[in-house]
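--- STAGE predict ---
source: upstream dedup step, 1 unique chain passed
mode: sequence only
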Amino acid sequence: MSDLQPYTVGLVIYPGMTTLDIVGPQTVFSALSGIKLHRIWKALEPIEADDGMVVVPDTTFADCPSLDVLCIGGGLKQMMIVDDPEVLEFLKKQGNTAQFITSVCGGSMFLAKAGLLQGYRAATHWAMREELAKLGVEVGTERVIVDGNRISGGGVTAGIDFGLTVAKVLRGEEAAKMVQLAIEYNPAPPFDVGSPEKAGSELVEKTLAFVTGQLGGAV
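--- STAGE serialize ---
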């Protein structure tokens, strides 16, 4: 395994993020050999996610090395952070040199505002597709979209699919399949309503009202 190309992967975390957006990919990446993970924020103090979970960064913006893979997720309180100049500057700086620029869920909004998705197709949470399109991004409905060196996942649970897709890119299909089996990723949801296309208009409207309320009416 020592001849594997090493990769430095940076997961940008922030107050009000959705933990699964990052925990899903991290679970996949941490199972790969030769991957150095950084959980990155402005400071090292614990931050509270949108579900109340407390997450501790291990790398600051200032101390972060040059990343091979840059990744940011979304969150119900991301609108308080998405225009933060310090965050956008960090993304721009790392995006200039990263081999892969990636996002999960509403994280694509950050990349778009940092100018990193111009001319690319991207996925995002279904409730944010229109907002992302307003930023000049071609928005797709796929669970994961690979467009050149931009890789983006849809909402929340798509982070696991996203992580496995990135694992295939970094380490090959067999390694990605081994991780999928190791984490027993064999989804069999009790309801077939996991996308607006399947859920029906009434459930979509109710859920959109809920999500919009959680986001402070930003969507």
